[in-house]
Specification:
The complex is a heterodimer of chains A (309) and B (259). Chain A is built from ten helices and five strands. With 309 residues, chain A is mainly alpha-helical. Chain B has 259 residues and is α+β, with helices and mostly antiparallel strands. The chains are: A mainly alpha (309), B alpha+beta (259).
Chain lengths: 309, 259
């Protein structure tokens, strides 16, 4: 059944979009991530303008991260002060990201920037995740305990001022790296149409040594607020958020996530991270190929204004 | 002034010489003047019926009538960009800004336009996509370019792929020597706005009559509401969309609660 998307201005098959929502929701539930890094490329692939895809996926991720955050809240697995501190940087980063998004769009370089960001970020993160999880799998095969906190490895940023104690996560760190991480996630998320969960979780674990018990719930709160504000900002400045598209995606997404979460519980953490790393790397490489291979059409059109009533 | 008077004289002389010249009249009727884009819109096809009214029917057989229908959508400004390889990756480099190009352009005729009139006439009357003026912004000036300009060719080609620009040399059918029918296909991606339908009657290579009508493509119902809200009240639209997302997320967590 074809349905006409009012902002994307194209008809799409509602079941195809719903199925995409389900599939990405399944993956997001399985790994505890938003899945924006998969959803945005998929939408671009079915012919939705990259700018509309990025803006509408923000809305979709806001919905899926709220349902995730609520279930973590019930399990008391959210570090609220840490989330608030991350958000201080996150909102600022989102505003910066939306500003750059608008600027690049007017310079006709937005699609290139989205492509380049996907390539660099996804291949790097995917590669690191694969390497880390392979090491962890080998370690567990040798019978050594897996320890992600690596105690004793003090980095330079642990000596920074404005130290704050986060009780639930049992960490005592400077506020500066917390703000910085929040800013980076908000900024990157607004440009790429991703929640940034797959970036944020490793950053919180490795840099701030947030324990695994609170890391996913806290990261979901940040994703929720940055993506909800990205929705409002993209809508106010670029008028590109397709509410209908977002609604179909989120209905599929929240249902898929329930099944994904069940599937994820049957797998070990290392295997899950390896699988996610492969997925992230594959999407990154897909974008790399697109940038390098001669495009089918060297020309493209961007409509600047229409005399629509 | 003298030149003007002279032209009038020549015209009158021309009329007197061939009395049948301006005798034809065109009567047309469009099947629908208002195309509604709803959520299930997958394109539409409009039908235009027309009749050639000739005062002296005995002349009809001797006149070779041809019809060209030009349907033009609302004007738009669009940038055509070209990619080039920079440091190994493909980047948009050069671009041209087309100002005042129709968002939709269909030229329908009963035979190839080159066979209808001479190249001069076609260019003067802007008959056919090749002869249609597509002004470009060149520095501070605005001008048309040669028809084989690569940016112009790419622009026309890219608009033609989804069927937004089209030339159909069999789009007009004569049902009788004076009765014709044209079908105007509007693809699903048809831009909303005001359209003009311009029907030109040619006889033996000369334009002898012309008729104009209008049609409107509108988004209706939910689509129009959403599109308008997004454009006019961006921030409220954004807040409402974000609220919808939060409601969906909350609802899901209630429905699928496992503990």
């Amino acid at each position: 059944m074809q349905i006409y998307l009012p902002i994307a201005d194209i008809p799409v098959n509602i079941f195809l979009v719903l199925a995409m929502g389900l599939a990405v929701g399944f993956i997001s539930g399985m790994f505890g991530i938003g899945g924006g890094f998969l959803m945005t490329p998929l939408l671009i692939f079915i012919g939705i303008a990259p700018a509309v895809a990025v803006a509408s996926v923000s809305t979709h991720i806001a919905a899926s991260s709220l349902s995730g955050a609520i279930s973590y809240w019930r399990r008391r697995a959210i570090d609220v002060p840490l989330a608030v501190m991350l958000l201080a940087g996150g909102i600022l980063g989102t505003a910066g990201g939306v500003w750059l998004f608008t600027l690049l769009r007017s310079l006709d370089q937005l699609d290139l920037m989205i492509g380049l960001s996907y390539v660099t970020l996804l291949t790097a993160v995917g590669g690191l995740m694969i390497a880390e999880s392979v090491r962890a799998i080998i370690r567990s095969h040798q019978g050594k305990p897996v320890d992600l906190r690596r105690p004793g490895s003090h980095a330079w940023f642990h000596g920074l001022p404005f130290k704050v104690r986060f009780k639930r996560s049992r960490i005592y760190v400077s506020a500066i790296p917390v703000w910085t991480i929040g800013f980076i996630i908000g900024f990157v998320g607004a440009i790429m149409g991703i929640g940034g969960g797959f970036l944020l979780v490793p950053m919180l674990i490795y840099f701030l040594r947030v324990p695994t018990a609170t890391v996913i719930g806290t990261s979901m709160v940040l994703t929720l607020v940055t993506m909800a504000s990205a929705t409002v900002m993209h809508a106010a400045t670029n008028h590109l958020v397709d509410a209908l598209l977002a609604l179909i995606l989120m209905v599929g997404g929240v249902i898929g996530a329930q099944f994904g979460a069940r599937a994820g519980q049957k797998m070990s953490g290392e295997r899950l991270r390896l699988l996610l790393g492969v997925l992230v790397l594959a999407v990154g490489l897909r974008f790399a190929i697109q940038l390098i291979v001669t495009p089918d059409d060297l020309y493209s059109i961007r409509i600047i204004e229409t005399a629509a009533p | 002034m003298t030149r003007c008077a002279l032209t009038v004289l020549v015209l009158i002389a021309g009329l007197a010489g061939t009395p049948a010249m301006a005798a034809e009249q065109l009567i047309t009727s469009l099947s629908n003047h208002r195309v509604r884009v709803t959520s299930s819109f997958i394109g539409a096809e409009l039908v235009l019926f027309g009749a050639i009214d000739e005062e002296r029917p005995e002349l009809i057989a001797r006149r070779g009538y041809d019809i060209v229908v030009t349907v033009r959508g609302p004007p738009m400004a669009a940038r055509t960009r070209r990619k080039e390889r920079v440091l190994g990756i493909w980047v948009n480099t050069e671009s041209r800004l087309f100002v005042n190009a129709p968002a939709y352009l269909a030229v329908l005729s009963n035979k190839p336009v080159e066979q209808i009139a001479s190249a001069d006439v076609l260019r003067r009357e802007q008959v056919g996509i090749d002869n249609y003026l597509l002004p470009q912004q060149i520095g501070p000036d605005i001008g048309d370019v040669v028809r084989d300009d690569p940016f112009r060719a790419a622009f026309v080609r890219l608009r033609s792929e989804p069927g937004l620009y089209r030339e159909d040399t069999a789009g007009v059918t004569f049902l009788s020597p004076t009765l014709f029918r044209a079908s105007i296909p509007l693809p699903a991606e048809v831009p909303i706005g005001n359209y003009s339908v311009d029907v030109k009657l040619f006889a033996n290579g000369q334009q002898v009559a012309r008729n104009n009508s209008a049609l409107e493509v509108v988004k209706v119902g939910f689509e129009q509401f959403v599109a308008n809200a997004a454009q006019r009240h961006g921030i409220w639209y954004g807040l409402a969309t974000a609220a919808m997302a939060l409601l969906t997320g909350w609802f899901a967590s209630v429905v699928f609660r496992r503990d």
